[in-house]
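Repro case for the chain-ordering regression, as requested:
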Amino acid sequence: MAKYEYITGDDIVSTIQFDVLELETRETVKVNGEATMPSMDFLLFPSGLGFQQEVKIVSGDTIDYVLKQTIKKKNIKLTVMWKGENAYQKYKSFITWISTYNNLEKYHIRFSYVLGGIRRYVELAVTNIDLKGRDDYFVSAELTMQPLTPFYERDFFSIMINNTHRGKIYNYAYPYFYGGGAYSDSNLIENDYLKQVPIKIILKGPMITPFVNITKINDDGTNGETYGSVQFSSSTSITKNQRIIIDAFNNRVYMTETNLDTGATTTKDMFDALDKSKDSFLFANPGRSKITASLDNEEASCEVHYVRYIS
Amino acid sequence: MSWACLYDRQFKPLGAWTQHVVSEWSLTRKAYEFDEFKLTCKGFENSRNACYIALFSNTGKIQYLSFCGIPVTKDELTTVSGIDCRQLFNQTIMLDLGARDANGEFKINSVRSLFDYLLNDREKTEEGGLDLGIDYKVDTSDLTVFSTNDWKEEAISREKKVQELWKVIQTACNIYNVVVIAEAQIDAIENQYKLVFEVMRITEKKNIKLSDYDVRMSNTQNVVNRAIATNGTDIKTYYLTNKYEVKEYSTNSKDRLYPPRIVTIYKDPADYEDEAQEQNKTTAQVAFNEAKAEAIQQLNENRYKDKVVINLNTKLGSTLDDVDFKYMGVINQYLPADYENGAENTIKELPVMSIKEDSKGNKSLTFGRLSDFWFMDD
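-- result from build under test --
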C-alpha cells in the first residue's frame, strides 16, 4: 500500500492563455492567420483570479445598512518560466511581445482561463515584470497585471439590418457571437453584471439624422422604458461608404469614411454633431434590453457590440 | 466615470478628439459665493482658444460648466481649476439704481427689473458700460410672480455710485430669497450650448429631522443683529430675528437675538445735496434713506450664519439627493435645549448654501449662508 496518495483533479493553470484585442474592431490580433500569443513554457502560481467586493455600510444596532456595493478589480500575478539554454532569449521574445501590444489606446492584452468548462477573459495592462536569475534549466519572471475590465465570458456582437434587406453573410470568428438581430424584436442584450455595461454601436449608411435607442425589455417580454438615446442633429447624414461609431468603451463618437477608389479611411470626431439634449453614449442596464436604430434605408445597418461581464 | 470637453467662446468643442476621460474631479456649488471646481483628465493636446470646460456624465449629460482658466498639462494629464461663470459679475463698476425713464419714474421698480439691470451686460443698455466679451442670456422669468407689494424700496440705495456688483446682487438675493445660478442650456434650434444666468426663487421646502442624518453643525451667535440707521435727526432700528428675518420693531419681541450686537449707520445730510436735487427730496430724507438701505443690507448679510452640513453618504442621505438651490431646509430638532416651549418649536429654516460632490462619490449638503470662519471648517 502506497504511503502517499497523489490526488489529481481539475486544473486551471494549463488553460491559461494570452491573446490581444484590437480596440477599434475588438477582434483578436492575428499573425500569419493565428492569434498572436507570447512565448512561454510554463505558468505557475496564478493569483488574483477570484472575486473582491467592497461594501460600504452604515452600522445599525441590529443590522447594517448597505450604502454602496462595488466590484473591485484585483491585480493578477503569476510566474512565467522558460526552459532550456536559450531561456533568456525566449524571455526577450516575451518582452518584445508585451511591448508590441503595450499601446493601450490601440490594443488590450487579454488573459483568459477555463473554469467549469467556460473560458473567462479579462483585458489588462502588464504593470510589472520581475525577472529572476537562472535556476539550473529554467529562467522565471514574476508578472503583475492590472485588469482594465471585469472578467467576461465572451464578446457579443450582433448586426441589425432592415427587414427588407437580403443576401449578406456575416462571418465572425470565435469569440464573436452573431446575435442574428434583424431589424425586429429579436435583438437582445443580456446584462447579468451588477452595473451598467458599455455598448459600441456602428451605424452604416446611408442614413439621414441617425439615431440609436436602448429600451428595457420587461420580464414578460414586452418593451419597457427607453432609457438611453443617441441622436444626431438634423443636419447630419451619412452615405453608403460612411460609418458612425458610438463607442462607450473608448469614449469616442466619430465617423469613418472609406474612399472607394483608394480604400483609404479617414476619421472625424462627431461629438459636436450629437443632439445635445440626448445621450452621447449607450450603456446597458442590468437585465435585458434591446436596440433600435434609424434603419429606414435597406442598405443601412447597425452593429451592436457589448461584453457580458461576470461578477 | 466622467469625461470633459473644452469649448471656445462659441461653444465649439476643441481638439481632434474632443472628449477626455476624467480621472478625478471635485465640485462645490455655492448659492451665495463662487463655486469651486477642479478636474484632472487625460491631457489635452492643445487648449488654445479654450474658454469653457464642461464635465459630462458617462452617458453624456452635462453636469457642470465653468470658465476653464488656463489648463495645465503635465505628465499627459490636464488639470483645470474652473472659474465659476458668475465671476463675470465680480466687478467694481458704476451702478445707477436711481435712473429714471422719460416720465420721471424709476426704471428699476420691481424685483425683476432690478435683476435684469444687475445681470445684463450694461454695454447693451448704457453707453460706456462694460464690454464683457461673453455672450450669455439672463433668465429672470421666475421673478414675474413678485408683485409691487413685494418691492422693498427701503432696501435699495438709489445713489449713482461705484459698487461691487456681486455684493449688490447678493444683497438683492438675500432680500428677496432668490439665488443666481449659471447653467449650460441647450439651444434646440442651433443644437448648441448657451450660457444662461437664471434667477430662481427659493420655493421648495424640505423637512429635515436632524437625528436621521450624520450632521455637523456650527452656530454663529456673535454677529451684528441690530442696525440703527440715522441722519443725525431721524432714527430707525432694524433687528435680525432668530428666524433670520430683518424686522423693524415697536415693542420687544421674543424672537430677537441676544446678546445685542449693534451697528450704527450714520449718513450726513450735507453729503447728499446733488442727490436731493435729483430726487426732489430734502438732504435729510435722502441721507436717511441711504442709512436705512445700508442698515438693512448689513443685517441681511448676517442672515443664516448658522451652518448645518449633512453627509449624503450616510443613512437616509439619499433622501436629500434631489435637493438643490430652490430648497429651504426646514430643520427640526434644532438646538432643542435653547427653546423654552419644547421640541415642537425647535425648527429653523435655512436655505441650501452649498452642494459638494466629487468623483469618489462623496456628496454633502450645507444649509445656511456664510459663517465668519467658513475657511477653517474643512
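Ordering looks correct now. Helices of chain B lie at 111-119, 165-176, 273-279, 283-301.
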